[in-house]
Amino acid sequence: MRADSFDKLCQQVTTLKQHAEQFDKAKLFAKNRYMQAQPSLFDRGVFTTKSMKLVDYVLEIEDEVNSLPPLERRHAHNYALERIGNQVQAVFNVIKSTPIWEKENKSTYKPRNKPVSKSPPYQQAVKQIMQPAHELYDELKQNHEFERRLVLMVEECKLRMQNVGPVKAKAINLEILALHARLGRCRKAISATEEKIQIVEKQQLR
Questions:
Q1: pLDDT digits (tens, 9 = 90+) for 142-175
Q2: What is the 3-state secondary structure (H, E, C) of the chain?
Q3: Environment class of 111 (CB within 10 Å of its CB; exposed 0-12, middle 13-18, buried 19+)
Q4: Which of 155, 10, 153, 144 is nearest to 68 (CA)?
Q5: pLDDT tens digits for range 49-101
Q6: Which residue in 174, 190, 171, 179 sits closest to 155, CA to CA?
């Protein structure tokens, strides 16, 4: 991620943190017995944090942003961005779904005489980085899975060759050659998809 895009994402998370702090100060869950009985606000699949304070979850988002893998590690980088996007959306949903907080938010945070954006600024920042490459990431994931399977098939063929006669070994060797040809095409597809992703990311980060 380019430095300016990273700084923009950090600024939007900071804004989200301010909203979360205001939400916590309102103590909207204090009289809600159901919420008070919960160990945490979110599922463990979204956050590892266990807390009834919204700002604690934003602190986890900050840690995720600060430890974002370098762009060279594409898969880890994209996975981290997707996780951050899900976390930001989860926190925003809590803020937005609370009627009392929505009323407070309208009077305090929305600028006057300006059209209201359909998405919150921090949600837009994450989307700007991540879209429209979702389909390319899915394609890349599938190609890597095909590559993994083909490599396993080659290894299995090599093991079979150890305990067979020359005629059978020749047939297995032809099978290996065919698998290597498929593996070569698969890796070309992976490289092509990675190039497409780089082009999309460069266009989005301009």
A1: 888 888 888 888 888 888 888 888 888 888 889 8
A2: CCHHHHHHHHHHHHHHHHHHHHHHHHCCCCCCHHHHCCCCCCCCCCCCCCCCCHHHHHHHHHHHHHCCCCCCCHHHHHHHHHHHHHHHHHHHHHHHHCHHHHHHHHHHCCCCCCCCCCCCHHHHHHHHHHCCCHHHHHHHHHHHHHHHHHHHHHHHHHHHHCCCCHHHHHHHHHHHHHHHHHHHHHHHHHHHHHHHHHHHHHHHCC
A3: exposed
A4: 10
A5: 888 888 999 999 999 998 888 888 888 888 888 888 888 888 887 777 655 44
A6: 179
Q: Which two tokens stand for residue 145?
A: 């899975």
Please say whether the dihedral angle defined by the alpha carbons of residues 94, 97, 99 and 103, taken in this order, is positive or negative. Answer: positive
* pTM given for the model: 0.49
Residue carrying structure tokens 């938010």 = 105
Tokens at residue 181, please? Answer: 């040809």
Backbone CA torsion sign across 1, 69, 141, 179: positive
